[in-house]
Write a structure and sequence with these properties.
heterodimer; A: about 1050 residues; alpha/beta; Rossmann fold; Dimethylsulfoxide Reductase, domain 2; 7-stranded mixed beta sheet; 6-stranded mixed β-barrel; 43 strands; about 30% helix; about 20% strand; B: about 425 residues; mainly alpha; Cytochrome Bc1 Complex, Chain D, domain 2; 3 domains; two-stranded antiparallel ribbon; 16 helices; elongated
């Protein structure tokens, strides 16, 4: 195997001193006592201080007295209050699942809501939806926390005063007249659209404007120009063998990433016996999640994208690459064209560009490679984004011209998201009646006279049609927590319709489905799907293409620094900003939390900030301490000051900033002090919003700002220093040529440490390793042995599993100050590894949770046996026994154990312990309302104990009990762990490895060549298997050729063997 | 001989058959009571009209027993045959349909009928009066006192001997001529002081430990409840199945307390208490009928008027069995999968007036039971995956008399209860 180096940090790449020092330490800092230096003489350590003994005795005395007082108090009397009349379907302690739908602006994902004792606590994907097929995203997983957001509006208001619905209805009845405009984000609900239409009909002169913060106007307009229809077709990545993306982040934020991730994974799953994969070539400007997953990635400027599209069009037409001079980029376009033409009819090109001409060229390419009707279906169009920017731009002008009498906002928040927010504000001031239906006091709602907060989707009735014919239904899973009223209810009332929306919806669907019984039945499934998707192509309008081509060819790429405004997977256009789970989710690209920042390439870091990452000292100075240099970015007279993060895989002359930050403080504690609003930097051209700007100037301010970057947290070193024991990656070409390469390498490594290894047959060492490479006995696992398998080919690092784990296991939010100290509590982290060229490296994501080692090093060192092994192979953690020595965390080779440094959950007896220690976000998570999201089956941990992944033991126990109740053996369908269930690509498999028919056993049997365990040579015997990443590239080995590799191997073998012998001699 | 032997065989078989059939009959009579309380008691009493008619003399009222069977198994279907008596009955009880009992066999119904006959008519003194099984004889021969006395005597004797010894030493010293040292009073004697200090330390340590272990435990906790609810009357005397009220025991984590509407299923009709006097442990006599009135207050029920369930308010019972938050306990696991009787943890519940915590609910108590109790290893299909254990049981490698305990399949591991 190639000795390919995978690295997480620049320090690791350079083997810097700071890296070497830091990797020795489990925790980022010294014992916290030392920080309190006030009592110490200069240069003294804690133990030499004047009065530690007395203080110690004081603490002992106080804690004994406190314990005695607390204990001698009488037991509190607890009440047990049953229902007055028990509803038939609620049994305390037993969860019910209701099929409903996650709807946030245009995003739609069919889900099942887990409702425990009347409150929804977890969302799972609905398997019956063919679009998302049980997959979810980080934002879907976090949505349940929004329900219990303390910053939600609790009652309707006029001005800022609480008012009744009747009072508002009365006031509005007299005010609504002529020129009324309803501004919404994309509405996917057919019934809501009908209600809106009914309202518009009742109020002549009124209109509906769809406004998406980050719209897909360019696609809609391009399709209108090319095909005469202002629609977005449905895409089928699962049918594509060649995928080319022109900076479309389709796995992260583009249209419906959950569905696309599911489809994309189909082509990326590898059948070992018949190895074939789809090929994904990505052209990008600023590093994105989708680009990180691409087989090949090429960098270009945002202003160059049109030329790339034109060159690609020319290349697929067989006329060669024209107009692109950069050699690497040219090679990339040639490779893309080759892949597309080779897979005629199974090829797909997508573009994230907001330039209509680029989208038209992409349409032309797709038409040339036979995508229409195969991988692109115009028979089923999607409704995720319907807004066209220019319509809203016109509205803003109308408002300022005083042409609008009243305006209604639902979902849309232009005061925050429109680049020229001042113009929206001045326009709003001229509108007589302003009404907002938004659930929180966001930037627009704060300027509205009437506020009628809409309920959360988990409290609502409704429907959604993400794609033609695919309906997903919403049903309430809890009574409305606050005095809220559905948007549709208000519209119905104001259009003189006496029926409420629930009845309206029910009547609507009962009529469509043929009766109330059918309606009730469909609610159980939650979705209604067409029998089969009919595929249809569309005929391309050639004149549109030629004019687009002419327009693109006329533009010249900028030579200055360019800016790209992008969306983060967790925060989106800003909806996730108030959600602590999403704020603390490390961004897949940068692994930073709680902020936005300017992303620059290593090359620009050198030229702009004088940080040469190849110089170990400078890399450390950048990387080891959280404060990052702040740079002032100016474009078109607008400027923003943000810290700079260096992210390899970004174009040298392009910088990126995430939108969605810098929100109004009324949205919740999470938005306070997190990031700055980047929307004003976007520009409006002919009414279209462009999120790329050229002619950017960057000036370092000389200040610094700490960024809670987790990329370098919980790092662990390996003996060889290039992480081959941690991450295995191979190219498809190498794999086809030599499928057993990884297996041989493992076998070879095991031989060195297994008794009698030299004489063994091929692969014998793999089998004998467990028994013969140790002095420990091998234990029986008589019934169940839990096992997990993670397919690195399918994992795209989206973070849905991380948030799902938060929700399922009551994992604490710790807030930015604590993340800065490396105290984040995530049980599951997604490690991001780079390899290759620093400017444009390959990226692999590796979800890492407790490996549940059968020879767990953490277990041996616990002085109180708080962590030990179960007969089912679980590494158990008993919080009540833990005394917080942290020996286990120190001894864990994978660094997956988390210590409760502070009272993050409010579980301590003394609430004062939180004051001044944890920040407002954490305190807010302990609010009675926020705590309703806690899973009652999982203990809330208190200060001073270690916690870690439990393999969702509460689910395992429940699964076994279900089987026992039915008197049958447990099967795969009984148990799904939270991370596995949330994953849109089914990258995680879990089950009973003792059962030969279980999925996990099959994965392990079917993939002998790709399977490996992390750090397996330590003989800790993890229960989590990984399937090596196979990248669909032609080159056989990136660093070394096959022959040199063989040589290298012998050499390495020789060295290690020699070392081994010397050791034995000692 | 062979003839004799076969004769003996025949006789013994005959005896066996008669015996078993007599046992069968006996079981039937007992079953009748159980079947009655399980199936009928929520709507019928023997001597009193409830939702349905009083059942005393029911056999005589029905013209044909065959009809009665049919009626009980499926009243609606029988009603359609147009039987005049059934129709009359239906009309009389405001067209309230009787539940169907397809699960009851003719034999079961006979057993119920047989039980009904054994119940004395209302007003008649209960046969044999309250058959007192005699106060439980306190034969816990407490020998602590004897041992204590013995220890005391021995201690006094040893003290005397020590004194004698020192006197003798003094005498012998005098004789030899060693000058006598000043006598040290015992409270200054270092040996005594050390000895007493050690004893006090051990005693104090022991008591502190025992006391500390007891903290937070509440065995015998018996709070006063908002309504004097007697399990003895309901589960003991009237044999109502535990799960009629505690519906969650078989399916879920919590056993659940019955909601007011469950109480009112029966108490809409049962408005007075006529059983044995109810006495609290402190000797206070409780007026059962008054307690039912308290229930009516919660239910918002006025006697003689139809009950409107929406008027009900929940009853705030005082929780008796409290487990710490870090313990996961699931009733279904024990009652359903493990087939553990309620009494094993809750004690003689069917004879308790107000409920008292029977077990200390300590971890030691849990673990002990897990060590000793067998799982339903052969009966429950879940355990079929433990192939080696099944083989070992067959081959005798594992003691089949001892069976597979909960501990053996990992029931004492931390994360079986703590997660």
């Amino acid at each position: 195997m190639e000795q390919k180096k995978h690295w997480q940090s620049f320090g690791e790449l350079n083997k810097s001193e700071a890296y070497n020092n830091e990797v020795q330490n489990e925790f980022k800092e010294e014992l916290p006592f030392v920080e309190d230096e006030s009592t110490l003489e200069k240069g003294e350590s804690f133990l030499q201080a004047k009065a530690p003994r007395r203080d110690f005795l004081k603490y002992v005395g106080f804690s004994t007295a406190a314990a005695a007082v607390a204990a001698s108090c009488e037991m509190p009397i607890k009440k047990s209050i049953p229902f007055a009349n028990k509803p038939e379907d609620i049994a305390p302690g037993i969860a019910d699942y209701y099929a409903t739908t996650y709807v946030q602006d245009g995003d739609v994902v069919s889900v099942l809501a887990k409702v425990r004792d009347g409150r929804p606590i977890k969302l799972e994907g609905n398997d019956l939806s063919p679009l998302t097929g049980g997959g979810t995203s980080a934002r879907v997983q976090a949505a349940v926390l929004d329900l219990y957001d303390t910053a939600r509006l609790r009652f309707p208001t006029i001005g800022v005063k609480e008012a009744t619905f009747e009072a508002i209805d009365k006031a509005i009845a007299s005010e609504l007249a002529g020129n009324t405009v309803i501004v919404t984000s994309s509405i996917t609900s057919p019934t809501t659209k009908k209600v809106v239409a009914q309202f518009l009909a009742k109020h002549p002169g009124s209109k509906h404007v769809t406004y998406d913060a980050v719209s897909n106007s360019a696609m809609l307009l391009a399709n209108e120009a090319c095909y005469g229809k202002r629609v977005i077709p449905s895409y089928h990545f699962e049918k594509a063998k060649a995928i080319v993306s022109l900076s479309a982040d389709f796995l992260g934020t583009w249209l419906n990433p959950v569905a696309f991730a599911k489809q994309y994974a189909v082509g990326k799953k590898l059948d070992e016996k018949n190895p074939a994969m789809s090929k994904h070539i990505h052209f990008e400007t600023v590093a994105s999640m989708t680009g990180s997953n691409a087989d090949e990635k090429y960098l270009c400027r945002p202003s160059e994208m049109g030329l790339v599209a034109a060159a690609l069009l020319s290349a697929v037409k067989g006329t060669g690459v024209t107009g692109v001079t950069d050699e690497k980029l040219k090679a990339g376009i040639e490779a893309a064209a080759k892949a597309l033409t080779a897979n005629q009819g199974a090829a797909l090109v997508v573009a994230g560009s907001d330039d209509v001409n680029v989208q038209i060229l992409v349409n032309a390419i797709n038409a040339t490679v036979g995508a229409n009707g195969t991988t692109i279906n115009f028979g089923t169009t999607v409704n995720y984004r319907q807004g066209v920017d220019s319509e809203f731009a016109t509205l803003v002008d109308d408002m300022n011209a005083g042409k609008v009498n009243s305006i209604l906002f639902y979902g849309a928040n232009p005061v925050y998201t429109w680049p020229n927010a001042e113009k929206v504000k001045s326009g709003l001031a001229k509108v007589k009646t302003t009404i907002s239906f938004n659930a929180k006091l966001d930037e627009t709602t704060a300027l509205c006279k009437y506020v009628i907060p809409a309920p959360h989707f988990l409290e609502s009735w409704g429907d959604a049609e993400p794609a033609t014919g695919y309906i997903s239904f919403l049903q309430p899973t809890i009574s409305p927590l606050f005095k809220t009223r559905a948007f549709e209810d208000s519209l119905l009332k104001w259009s003189g319709d006496a029926s409420d929306y629930t009845t309206y919806l029910k009547n609507e669907w009962s009529a469509k489905l043929g009766g109330e019984a059918a309606w009730n039945k469909i609610l159980q499934a939650g979705v209604s799907n067409p029998a089969a998707e009919t595929f249809a192509g569309a005929t391309l309008n050639a004149t549109a293409v030629s004019s687009a081509l002419a327009a693109v060819s006329a533009t010249k790429p900028s030579t200055k620094i360019e800016l790209v405004l992008y969306q983060k997977v967790g925060i989106g256009v800003g909806q996730g900003a108030a959600n602590p789970w999403l704020q603390e989710l490390p961004d897949p690209v940068t692994r930073a939390t709680w902020d936005n920042y300017i992303i620059v390439s290593p090359a620009m870091a050198k030229s702009l900030l004088n940080i040469d990452l190849n110089n170990p000292g400078q890399a450390d100075a950048y990387e080891v301490k959280p404060p990052k240099q702040v740079v002032k970015l100016t474009v078109d007279g607008k400027s923003i000051e943000l810290p700079v993060l260096i992210v390899p895989g970004t174009h040298p002359q392009t910088v990126g900033i995430a939108v969605g930050y810098g929100r109004a403080e009324a949205l919740g504690k999470s938005v306070i002090g997190t990031g700055k609003n980047a929307y004003p930097l976007a520009c409006i051209e002919n009414g279209n919003v462009h999120f790329n700007c050229s002619n950017v100037t960057l000036t370092p301010t000389g200040e610094t700002y700490p960024v809670a970057l987790t990329q370098t947290h919980f790092r662990y070193d390996t003996e060889q220093g290039n992480r081959t024991e941690v991450m295995k990656e191979i190219s498809l070409a190498s794999y086809i040529k030599h499928p057993t390469e990884i297996r041989e390498e493992r076998d070879h490594e095991f031989r060195l440490i297994t008794e009698g290894g030299d004489k063994m047959k091929e692969f014998e060492a793999l089998e004998k390793f467990e028994k013969e490479a140790t002095i420990y006995p091998v234990y029986d696992r008589p019934g169940i042995k839990w096992g997990m398998s993670v397919d690195l080919n399918s994992c795209n690092g989206c973070g849905a599993c991380v948030v799902a784990c938060n929700a399922e296991n009551n994992v604490s939010v710790v807030g930015k100050p604590e993340v800065l100290r490396g105290h984040e509590m995530h049980w599951l982290r997604i490690d991001k590894y780079y390899s290759g060229d620093m400017e444009n490296p390959k990226v692999v994501f590796q979800p890492l949770m407790c490996q549940h080692c059968d020879n767990a090093p953490c277990e041996n060192v616990c002085p109180v046996a708080a962590t030990n092994h179960s007969s089912e192979g679980l590494n158990q953690m008993t919080y009540n026994r833990c005394i917080g020595t942290r020996y286990c965390a120190n001894n864990c080779p994978f660094k997956v154990r988390r210590f409760n440094w502070a009272d993050y959950t409010g579980a301590d007896s003394f609430s004062d312990n939180q004051v001044g220690v944890v920040n407002d976000v954490v305190l807010d998570m302990n609010d009675d309302l926020s705590r309703m999201v806690l899973n009652p089956d999982v203990t809330v941990r208190s200060r001073g104990v270690i916690e870690k992944c439990s393999f969702c033991v509460q689910r395992l126990q429940a699964a076994k009990l279900d089987a026992k109740k039915d008197s049958r053996p447990m099967v795969d369908a009984d148990v799904k762990v939270a991370c596995q269930q949330s994953c849109p690509t089914n990258a995680i498999n879990f089950g009973n490895a003792n059962d030969k028919h279980s999925a996990i056993s099959k994965v392990r049997v079917d993939n002998p060549n790709r399977q490996f365990y992390v750090l397996e040579q330590l003989h800790v015997l993890p229960n989590v298997t990984y399937l090596a990443k196979v990248r669909n590239i032609d080159e056989e080995h990136a660093a070394a050729g096959h022959d040199s590799k063989a040589e290298h191997k012998t050499e390495a073998a020789h060295d290690t063997k020699a070392a081994h012998k010397t050791e034995a001699a000692h | 001989m062979t003839i004799l032997r076969s004769l003996a065989k025949i006789v013994s078989i005959f005896l066996l058959i008669t015996l078993s059939s007599s046992i069968g009959n006996h079981l039937n009579a007992q079953d009748g009571k159980a079947l009655f309380s399980q199936n009928c008691a929520s709507c019928h009493a023997v001597n009193k009209k409830l939702t349905g008619p009083a059942l005393a003399g029911v056999e005589d009222r029905w013209p044909e027993k065959k009809n009665l069977y049919a009626w009980i198994k499926n009243s609606a279907a029988f009603l359609k045959t147009g039987d005049p008596y059934a129709t009359k009955l239906y009309e009389e009880y405001n067209k309230t349909a009787m539940n169907n009992f397809p699960g009851l066999s003719d034999a079961d119904i006979d057993a119920i009928l047989a039980y009904i006959k054994t119940v004395p008519a209302a007003g008649a003194a209960p046969a044999g009066g309250a058959a007192v099984a005699g106060a439980p004889t306190e034969d816990q021969s407490d020998s602590t006192l004897v041992f204590g006395l013995l220890t005391l005597i021995l201690a006094v004797v040893s003290l005397i001997l020590l004194q004698v010894n020192s006197n003798l030493k003094k005498l012998s010293d005098d004789k030899v001529g060693i000058p006598a040292t000043d006598p040290v009073p015992f409270f200054r004697n270092k040996a005594y002081i050390a000895f007493i200090a050690i004893v006090l330390f051990i005693l104090g340590g022991y008591m502190t430990t025992v006391g500390a272990i007891d903290l937070g435990r509440s065995k015998d906790y018996q709070p006063e409840q908002p309504i004097y609810y007697s399990h003895k009357v309901h589960a003991g005397v009237n044999q109502i199945n535990c799960q009629y009220c505690h519906t969650g025991t078989y399916q879920g984590k919590q056993a659940t307390l019955p909601s007011v509407n469950v109480c009112m299923n029966c108490h809409a009709a049962i408005n007075e208490y006529k059983g044995e006097p109810l006495v609290r442990e402190n000797g206070d006599v409780v007026d059962g009928t008054n307690e039912i009135k308290k229930l009516y207050k919660y239910a918002g029920f006025t006697e003689g008027q139809p009950w409107d369930p929406s008027q009900a308010k929940p009853i705030e019972w005082v929780r008796i069995h409290n487990l710490p938050d870090h313990v996961y306990f699931n009733h279904a696991q024990h009652v359903n999968a493990g087939q553990v009787a309620c009494q094993q943890c809750h004690g003689d519940i069917q004879n308790m007036g107000e409920v008292k915590q029977f077990s200390d609910l300590s971890m030691g108590w849990c673990i002990n039971c897990h060590r000793q109790s067998e799982v339903k290893f052969k009966e429950n299909g879940f355990y079929s995956i433990y192939e080696t254990f099944h083989q070992d049981l067959k081959s005798g490698k594992l003691d089949s008399a001892k069976g597979i305990t909960v501990e053996k399949i990992g029931g004492t591991e931390c994360q079986k209860c703590h997660y």
